[in-house]
Specification:
Layout: H1 5-9, H2 13-22, H3 26-39, E1 42-47, E2 50-55, H4 66-74, H5 76-82, H6 88-108, H7 121-143, H8 152-180, H9 182-198, H10 204-227, H11 229-238, H12 244-257
Antiparallel strand pairs: 1-2
């Protein structure tokens, strides 16, 4: 079988499974993976204003989709497309780059709050950039103590360990911020209920736009903690949710409303 689409249309998941395992066409493998992600049902996980999405387990989908869910759930197709998982060093370099780009954007945006400039969005963004720079300086000092050369094997291992620490510290900060923000989320929910009451009677066009916005925000909420805003927006664009630039703007507006 040269193509997976006919078998997909017939719900012949054994044939689809056999095709991707034998195929070396990365473009078509990516197309199949994207189609599975688009077609298989997801369940929303909600708490306050926070929303995450997960694909339903194979045993929870309809009989017709069970084989497709097994392909996605196993992770083997994704692993074949993506190759070996990135090292901690590669992950940290990506996180650092994406977040530095986002912080530069935030530091140049107009303020949405008033008061002491030392607590402004710009100040927080600049402080975060400074801390990222200091982290680089500390890592460089550890990798080259007193100008002494470190064995390359030991150097690579140390870089990996330091990157792993940085990733986990960064993720801990994200979760700590979310935990502390639950009180604000509660206020946002109450305000949202009042606002929804005032918007009753809006036309179907407005509801369609809201649904599209909610889908974007939910997907960005899933991706941003580990991928950063810029890359997450590009992923959403590749999934047909609009342009990356528009998605970034909508994300910033969403975050501003929940500050």
């Amino acid at each position: 079988m040269n193509d997976w689409r006919a078998a997909y249309r017939d719900w012949d998941w054994d044939a689809v499974d056999n095709w991707w395992r034998r195929s070396s066409d990365r473009v078509q493998l990516q197309a199949l993976f994207k189609r599975l992600r688009a077609d298989l049902p997801q369940t929303a996980i909600e708490n306050g204003t926070e929303v995450d999405w997960e694909y339903q387990l194979p045993d929870n989908v309809s009989k017709e989709w069970h084989g497709a869910a097994m392909i996605l759930y196993s992770g083997e197709l994704e692993a074949k497309i993506e190759g070996d998982p990135p090292t901690d060093l590669q992950q940290w370099q990506q996180i650092q780059s994406e977040n530095a780009a986002t912080l530069h954007e935030l530091s140049e945006m107009a303020e949405v709050t008033s008061g002491d400039e030392r607590l402004s969005r710009r100040a927080h963004a600049q402080d975060a950039l400074r801390l990222l720079s200091e982290a680089d300086f500390i890592k460089a000092a550890l990798l080259d103590p007193d100008g002494d050369e470190i064995d390359q094997t030991a150097r690579a291992a140390l870089q990996e360990h330091l990157s792993g620490i940085a990733i986990r510290a960064f993720a801990a900060g994200v979760h700590a911020e979310k935990a502390a923000g639950k009180e604000i989320e509660n206020d946002a929910i109450r305000g949202g209920k009042v606002a929804r009451g005032a918007r009753e009677g809006a036309g179907s066009t407005a509801r369609l736009h809201a649904a599209k916005r909610d889908r974007r925000i939910a997907r960005m909420s899933e991706l941003v903690p580990e991928r950063g805003i810029a890359q997450s927006a590009r992923i959403c664009e590749s999934e047909g949710m609009g342009t990356a630039a528009a998605i970034r703007k909508q994300w910033y507006r969403h975050k501003d409303k929940h500050l």
